[in-house]
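Colleagues,

Please find the record for the two-part complex below.
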Amino acid sequence: NAGVTQTPKFRVLKTGQSMTLLCAQDMNHEYMYWYRQDPGMGLRLIHYSVGEGTTAKGEVPDGYNVSRLKKQNFLLGLESAAPSQTSVYFCASRPQGTVANTEAFFGQGTRLTVV
Amino acid sequence: TQLLEQSPQFLSIQEGENLTVYCNSSSVFSSLQWYRQEPGEGPVLLVTVVTGGEVKKLKRLTFQFGDARKDSSLHITAAQPGDTGLYLCAGAPKYSGGGADGLTFGKGTHLIIQP
């Protein structure tokens, strides 16, 4: 019972490089989210998806792109990494329904450093 | 953007003491959740409160939602070293589009319980 799995767990990038973070969930959840967590800032929503083939911007979407080609996978892309994108990235998923009636499950995070 | 202010940011107390963590906002939330996060892990849901004035208990943890649904508190009785962690409050906006929108997180309270 894997839940939400994020790949990779750690990565160091040079400024200007690109990479894709993969999030996979095996709970058949409709909704998926990407957050970033920075010291003293809490978790901030980057992008989210309400279903296969759909995506929407969150609070801090600039510099990131996402895709949800399959229901179980949500990809976060950095086209040209910047030091300001150094952070811990968390993926979450939850079933269709309101926050009050459903539980979100988070992955273990990806620690990304851009030098 | 709806903001959630948590206080205190850091708290270090002795085992057996009681403590309260606060989560405040000027905005109304349809529901509010409390999460606990341990180092290297994603947040894990502790409780969801929905009704103004609602009180929920989880063993030694007591959660309360303010009457106006703008604030919440977490009270821990007889704290144990195992309670150590980062406690996050998160709110679902009152007028959330279909319930799919991501959560707004507070910055968190780092709690250390010393033996």
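Chain B has no helices and eleven strands.

Comments are welcome before we finalize the supplementary table.
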